[in-house]
Amino acid sequence: MSKIISGYVADWGADSLIASDAKKMDIVNYAFATISNGKAVESWIHVDKLLAFRSNNPDLKVLVSIGGWAADGFSQLAATASGREVFANSAIQLMLKYDFDGIDIDWEYPGLSVSGIASSPEDKYNFTLMMEEIRAQLDVLGTQNDKKYLLTMAVGSDDSVLRNLEVAKLSNIVDYANLMTYDFAMGLELLTQRYQTNLYSEPVIAKRSVDNTVKRYMAAGMHKKKIMIGAAFYGYGLTNVNIWENNMAVMLGQTARSLQYTYTRIYNELIVEKGYTRYWDSIAKAPWLYNGNTYFTYDDPESIKYKGKYVWSKDIAGMMFWEYSQDKTHTLLEAMYRELK
Q1: Which residues belong to the signal peptide in this entry (predicted)?
Q2: CATH number corresponding to 4-232+300-340
Q3: What pTM did the predictor assign?
């Protein structure tokens, strides 16, 4: 037996794909197609590299991932039946153009304009209707082609996101829900929420966690066999901070500066070159780095191992990650593969 490994591959990072990794993954979410005039349109320039990568594993499913942070247009097209129908058809035509295996919707986020996109209180219901339309068209096509096409969605971990989703209805529509169980804290939030992708919560701080997110989605009606927890192939840092005293970070007397590094840079520059000290939180199951001035929170092979064990213990679908090219050491996917396969 094994669990599902699903990863986002951004077009801009397709150069980093290596053949051996194709057999370690079940699903690739190819990011991102965008929305123009209510239709899904490609914005790729390296799709040939993805297709070459796919050829190394005939069982690998590739989905066209539509949307992403600050991708506008969902709220408008989902507001009418005709808009939903046109969009679903355009997404399927794009999928068929490259003989992909399904569609991943990354609307960040229905009912919210946090990234500057248009939103409406009706997004909560229109999102469900849009996903129903895509599912219906995929099922018709699947019957014609004798093939199962996948429909997945990327969803956030905040309560504000959950309140704007009809989770129980969506559970009956999608094949997998990719829970974005990362970005729990970034920037100055790291002063009070210690980790960006911790598995468990702490008694005082780091109250957001993978486990809490899974429990809230299941309580809202998401079937466990459709839940994919997220791992981050990048991390956040904060300069000019003292280490936590009485469960709170203390400023060093200067303005803190936030940082975002890929795992490649974290490993090569901070761990290998600069020799940051690595610490491990045995409660949160999260690593962190510190050099007396700068703090970093990230995923590493050990934290991913525990996330994999969590997948098995909760009997959920598997694990997904953002984003492939951010780990050129290829050790994070390897850790995922060893634990889930």
Answers
A1: none
A2: 3.20.20.80
A3: 0.96
Along the chain (341 residues), what's the average pLDDT of each consecutive run of 10 residues?
Answer: 96 97 98 98 96 98 98 98 98 98 98 96 98 98 97 96 98 98 92 90 77 97 98 95 67 82 98 95 94 94 98 98 98 98 94
Active site (catalytic) residues: 108
Domain spans, the chain: 4-232+300-340
Those residues whose C-beta lies under 8 Å from the C-beta of residue 307, and which sit 6 or more positions away, are: 199, 210, 229, 231, 285, 299, 319, 339
The H helix count followed by the E strand count for the chain is 10, 16
User: Which position has the token pair 């899904």?
Assistant: 40
Instruction: Return the pLDDT at 245.
Output: 62
Q: How far apart are CA 235 and CA 246, in angstroms?
A: 24
| Angstrom distance (rounded) from CA 309 to CA 312 | 5
Residue 213, phi then psi, degrees to nearest 5: -65, -45
Distance, in Å, from the CA atom of 170 to the CA atom of 128, rounded to the nearest integer, reads: 6
Amino acid symbol at 311: V
Long-range contact pairs involving 140-149 (C-beta distance under 8 Å, separation at least 24) = 141/92, 147/101, 149/95, 149/101, 149/102, 149/103
